[in-house]
Amino acid sequence: MAKKSQNNNELRGLSKTELLKLAKSKKLKINPAAKKEEILGKLDAVKKLEKLKKLVQTKKRIAGKLPKGVPLPLPAKSKKKKPAKRKPLRMALPAAKIRRKKTFEIPASTQNRIPLHTGKEEEEIEEKKYFVSPSGEPRPAEPVEELPHGYGVNRIVLLARDPEWLFSYWEVTPDRVEAARRFFESEWGTTRSILRVYDVSNIKFNGSNAHSHFDIELSGNARNWYIRVSKPDCSFIVEIGIVSKSGKYFMLARSNAARTPRSRMSDVIDEEWMSIDFDRIYALSGGLRVGASSAQMRRLIEQGLPLGISSGYVSSPVKIKGRNFWFVLDAELIVYGATEPGAQVKVQGKRVKLRPDGTFSLRYAFTDGVEQITAAAQSADGIEERAITLDVSRKTVEKSPKLKEGLRA
Amino acid sequence: MPKGTLCLVLHAHLPYVRHPEHEYFLEEDWLFEAITETYIPLLDVYEGLVRDKVPFKITMSLTPPLISMLTDPLLQSRYVRHLDKLIELASKEIDRTRWQKEFNDLALMYHSKLNQARNIFVNQYKNNLINGFKKFQDLGGLEIITCGATHGFLPLMSVNRNAVRAQIQVAVEHYEQHFGRPPKGIWLPECGFEPGIDEVLKECGIRYFYTEAHGVLHATPRPKYGVYAPIYCRSGVAAFARDLESSKQVWSAEEGYPGDYDYREFYRDIGFDLDLDYIKPYIHSSGVRINTGIKYYRITGRTNNKQPYNLHAAMEKAASHAGNFMFNREKQIEYLNQLLGRDPFIVAPYDAELFGHWWYEGPDFLNYFIRKTAFDQNMFKLGTAVDYLQANPRNQVATPSMSSWGHKGFCEVWLEGSNDWIYPHLHMAADRMVQLSKQFSGNGISGLKKRALNQAARELLLAQSSDWAFIMKTGTMVPYAVKRTKDHILRFNRLYEEIRQDKINENWLKDVESKDNIFPKIDYHVYA
To answer: What is the pTM of this model?
Structure first.
């Protein structure tokens, strides 16, 4: 709460022009003739809305990771150790990691690209190896010590993820930042931190001989970044650095080289070999689906050869279109009895094992109908016999689904 | 006269999960289920083929963590305990379903199969299934290849070449200890390949590996025969690429064989369906329901109204699918032979656990398929990569491209929002391990320090399992995967500090050695 009023005071301290500028940046429509109080009120409302949105998003994110039916966890008492106080850095502070999650598709329309097999089905089946229970982790999570936040080693590492994306993570040590500060002297206040990505394909990089480079402006506390290069089969090196408004640049760390994979077939064709109906081979080799095999196969399939795979949707009788609600009921029968230990008991003609105290119990599954359970006990000395018969009947009636009044099925 | 070869590859892998500190541990079930539903049935199929003199050639990769678990006495005895409980449950099921013939037949079937499994495990192979796999390799029908030491995803490890080499070298040595000879080929974890990895393979004596289709298709220069013949990397190591046409028929959940309505439904298990009081002794001790492996329903269709499973109908289907698969391969090979002017080599790799565990009738399908291939047709034969290289020593030279058989074909599965945080720690640990192994490179290192160094190597390898990142991404048992990553990194970091300061805590070291006891004969010099 203290933070809020501090911000409010900051806002109050601004001039009306500055407030209008701020409101414009937040895409608020404000009449330039409006009073300062009005503008402050609107900015406050926007801030509240942003906070609410973030909360809903967080809840959604958490909910997305939990299976249905499990309530959202209560915020756990944080046992995190406060990270050691460092001099305030422009980046690499121990705040929340900024994760840039990007989905990406390989566009299929480029020349010479074959549709890649995506491996989705293999992944779905492979993860069944680790399937034990659909409700996820069945026991309370044991507390695990946290991994170190950093290793005190100034470094940046680059990995190629696929033909279009790289991934980089880094750690910048205080002494390196100090060196930067000394380098920039009075300009330090105008500096910002960036990633500089160099294309160094087939070059021995010496710091200035790359084919090209581009900069990415980093946001405050990032410690890693997904970099879109969209250049398959190229080598890259990334540096994390600081650049001033005047364009002076200071490198904090330089990464290893990483090469993006190819995304299409090679243009290099060995001159010794003769081309043998090339395109057909590739069509056959790459990304074929069942039922879209070689032309000859398709014809044969169309002739109606047995494939043994049923098709056609069989709808369940109890589901209403568009709804997932379900309800099942079942019953089993437990028959239990007792006699003198040592006696012999037969149920439906089959011998039953007694517990040491002479009791027994039997469990049966059964469907609708009538069952007759005949039981007989013979005394241990074989002289006397007793018999009891139990008739049970089961009848299941499932009523048709009822919807709340006014709603249609 | 066969006009082509089909190379079936079964990749069997599970991460190293062994928790002596707990009496029962949930994730150990992964291994027990795979043994009961996949490994034992496969060995049974091979046994039948040998007995009936059916010629066959199959390639199997058995990963070092899996081999380690199958040869570990604690896990072996826990498996027998697990199996005995299941047999007890199956007996109860026979009684409980006595009034319902359809279910009773199935209960009898499970009881019989479980007892048979126990017989194979305990009596035939003396609790050690590796005896079985080795036997069939020695008889000639099975070619066993290795994999990364802990199934680490190599393209995301290659910033440290020594770490990549250690994954391969440790695997090769482990293989030799168990099979009596070095491995000829390797299944790269997740088919993760990057140019340069082949040079490491060469250094370790490996002659061939497998890639996803586009690994070879995108090679430079262009491969003349697509995926239908291997290529040699510049280093001389051969790369064999997956054929997607034959794979799809088995892998596809929607269109492939395993989705057939007569086959057993994976998700209807009595562990979930039955009354809690009855099933409680056979599920997780906290009462949370888990798979037992006893399932009574067939897929039936896209409906919740599942019908009872009928073994006979399912077996008929499996036989018919085997016939269909064989027919498709005949046509494919006949066509390709004509097109290419030479015998095509079709590589069809699958996760071994697909057969049996996910697709219950899978091992029967394989059985029928192998027999039909041997006796009902002449268009193709089964073969291994080694056979091919011996018959065709001359092949095109090209550099395969970086690829994997994960979703989207590259590294994204193991490098995205849920799991990218692990790499700063894994890479730092790898760098530190190399540093340690260079620092203590001599042979006169004292007993305690040497133990600590070897244990540090173990912790690094265990942290590098690609399974953890995979699980974090797919979301099945995420807290466990996160815990394993953290545990191993933290143990490594502590060992690193203790070694550097020469203040090794022997009691703690002993405790860690007993828990993370994979690769007993490891030598940390492998990182130098």
So the answer is: 0.79
